[in-house]
Amino acid sequence: MPMLVLLPVFLGGTMWRWSNKVDDILVNKVTGDLTIADQYLARLAELSGERIDAVARSVALQDALGTGDSTTFLRGERELLGLDFLRIEMATPEARRWPVIATALTGRLHSAVDVLAADDLEALSPGLAEQAEIPLVPTRAAVPTDRTVETRGMIIHSAAPLTLPDGRSAALVGGVLLNRNLDFIDTINALVYREQSLPEGSQGTATLFLEDVRVSTNVRLFENVRALGTRVSAEVRTQVLDEGSVWHDRAFVVNDWYISAYEPIHDSFGERVGMLYVGFLETPFRNAKRSSVLILGGAFVLIALASVPVFLRWAGHIFRPLEAMTRTIARVEAGDLAARNNPRDDGDEIAQVAGHLDNLLDRLQARDRELRDWAESLEVRVAERTSDLQAANQRLERTTERLIISEKLAAVGEITASVAHEINNPVAVIQGNLDLARSMLGAEVGKVEEEFRLIDDQVYRIGVIVSKLLQFARPEEYSGAHNLIAPSEVVRDCLVLTRNQIEVAGITCFPAFDSTASVSMSRTELQQVVVNLILNAVHAMPDGGSLTIATEDRDACAVIVVADTGTGIAPEVLPRIFDPFFTTKQAQGTGLGLSISQQIVTQARGRISATSIPGKGSRFEVFLPIAENA
After folding, report:
1. 149 torsion bin: left (phi>0), alpha (psi -120 to 50), beta (else)
2. Do residues 152 and 5 make contact, with C-beta atoms less than 8 angstroms apart?
3. 496, 450 Cβ separation under 8 angstroms
4. What average pLDDT does this structure show over 162-182?
């Protein structure tokens, strides 16, 4: 039964789960591959824009514009940068219809992927339309179409602001045609599927689609013929282009099954105009799974054929004596203490066990008589001992709890006292050097009196913290009450602390301190929260803006408002800004500022709310309950 029924079920379930896990791993791998390809395409667009911007800012271009020889200069730069076109666009309505150029005319660099008609391509550069043209190849399972050739071209479209010698604004526009750009797609494939990254027999592929047409690919239609002009299946097109979803699954690509990943490509208008694909051949993985199943199944069959007869014979020797012992035990349970096995003296292990069972039954019968005599006396003794044990157990629990609490408090007290002592030393050095600076400045000390006052204030706060630590270590030597602070005063000090960052960023500050309430909270912790919100607002306005900082009393709470006119926060990012380690500053931030600020405010029985409109700014509000005895 275990060998022929349970084990096959177990093996089948294990193989099924293993197969699913392998499929999940393959899908995860192709998802990561797609991420790398997407990052490379984005970086290529970004790099194209940076190079064109460098040309637009160059002195050589200004000199060429001044001498009227800009055409020759731009032709040389186009060849040097490997671009398919590079030209100057004036601020005409025709030029402004492209978001890339319109953005450059406002003074900002912009790059995107765009799709141009044949006439537009020919206008950019003679022969570019012919280079982009790709005949369509009939493809099984694709959406039916009457077209026979793809005349549009997908380009990396970049534009940088340019000021002409006469002061007019223009845009330097350039880009690369992606149709038939085999170097581009081969670079992606080499970057994603490096040597030995796939098992022998598999191969990685990458493709760029204009809508559902392959315009650049390393997928082969035949041995040395790339599958340019073939089209993606209707199912993939619907999910990726029509619905805007990412495809992660196996798919039939031209002539074989691949583990595939597709994602939509958006142009500068925000429309889905194409797809980016990466994938690798599924056959080696499918063959490996099939071989594993066949080997495991064959091994099971061989083992079963060899072992089942042995098991059956062995089971007969075991189960018959065991069944006899089972019947004897059933009779004993029914009250027949004289029942015995009386095994044969053949010396095997089961007979020995049956003999031991008979001996045990003899002893059980004798002990039964003794136990009946002891039963009555034990009942009385058990009742007495139970009462004593309950009382002792209660005393032991109370003593253990007090001991644990005492040990914890003692250990924490020693650590706290040590930390407080170590903090006092650098604080004393700071205070001493501060007094020395005052004496050395003499009459000039008035110029920095406010800064010195703030430093004194912070040193005092450190002293308060140290006092609280020592109070925790030796509570019998201290006594105190809750710390009441005025949020308006704390916010005013924070503006002084961050004044330099605000002025350097060219930000106009609008303070309004209408709150007169006090809150029960650490002044240092509230200062940490407000400074963090101010600096976040400054970082959101790299080109300057307006910063509103206000305090007010609202609904039994003191409210601190920090609002900016910066870049704002995207709706999909806003719910995560208080998560630990989540940051949009990349290497410049740790992602802990807002998380720590939220913890501090929550401990003070308050809360933080955030609202934002992308492109218009953000608003943070800190609600702190007004102290009852304020």
Report:
1. beta
2. no
3. yes
4. 92
Query: CA 231 → CA 134, 152, 425, 628, distances in Å?
Result: 12, 15, 74, 72
CA distances from 428 to 425, 452, 491 (A): 5, 15, 27
Cβ atoms 574, 612 nearer than 8 A: yes
Which residues, at least 6 apart from 595, have a Cβ–Cβ distance to it below 8 Å?
578, 579, 580, 581, 582
Looking at residue 19, its amino acid is: S
Cα separation values, 128 from 116, 132, 151, 153, 170, Å: 11, 6, 11, 9, 23
What lies within 8 Å, CB to CB, of 171 at 6+ separation is: 88, 89, 91, 95, 101, 104, 105, 159, 160, 161, 162
Eight-state DSSP code of residue 238: I
C-alpha distances in Å from residue 338, one per residue of 364, 372, 375? 10, 17, 22
Structure tokens at 211: 């809508």
Orientation of helix 487-497 relative to helix 523-539, angle to 10°: 50
Separation CA 108–CA 161 (nearest Å): 6
Closest CA to 268 of 113, 126, 395: 113
HEC string of 443-505? HHHHHHHHHHHHHHHHHHHHHHHHHHHHHHHCHHHCCCCCCEECHHHHHHHHHHHCHHHHHHC
* Tokens 């407000």 found at: 530
> Whole-angstrom distance between the N-terminal and C-terminal Cα of the chain?
79
Question: How far is 389 from 358, CA to CA, in rounded Å?
Answer: 38
E-strand stretches of 254-360: 256-266, 272-281
Other Cβ atoms less than 10 A from the Cβ of 216: the count is 24
Q: What is the Cα–Cα distance from 298 to 288, expressed in whole angstroms?
A: 15
Q: Can you tell me the distance from the alpha carbon of 465 to that of 426, in angstroms, rounded to the nearest whole number?
A: 14
Residue 222, Cβ density class (10 Å: 0-12 exposed, 13-18 middle, ≥19 buried): exposed
Lowest mean pLDDT among 275-279, 291-295, 357-361, 408-412: 408-412
Give residues with Cβ within 8 angstroms of 564, minimum separation 6.
537, 538, 540, 541, 545, 546, 547, 548, 617, 618, 619
Helix (H, G, I), strand (E, B) or coil at 624: strand
62 and 164 in contact (C-beta within 8 Å)? no
Average pLDDT, the chain: 84
Question: How far is CA 108 from its chain centroid?
Answer: 30
Exposure class string for 469-504: b at 16+ Cβ within 10 A, else e: bbbbbeeeeeeeeebebbbbebbebbbebbeeebee
Q: Which of 319-323, 457-461, 595-599 has the lowest mean pLDDT?
A: 319-323
Residues 6+ apart with CB under 8 A from 570: 614
pLDDT tens, residue by residue, 379-408: 788 888 888 888 888 888 877 755 664 565
* Band (479; pLDDT cuts 50, 70, 90): very low
Write out the two tokens for 620.
């943070």
Cβ burial, residue 589 (10 Å; 0-12/13-18/19+): middle
Q: Which amino acid is at 149?
A: V
User: From residue 291, how far is each of 196, 392, 566, 570 by CA, in Å?
Assistant: 22, 67, 60, 50
Structure-block tokens of residue 474: 């030796």
> Model's pTM, two decimal places?
0.49
Query: In angstroms, rounded to a whole number, what is the distance separating the alpha carbons of residues 235 and 557?
Result: 56
- Distance (Å, whole) CA 272 – CA 240: 9
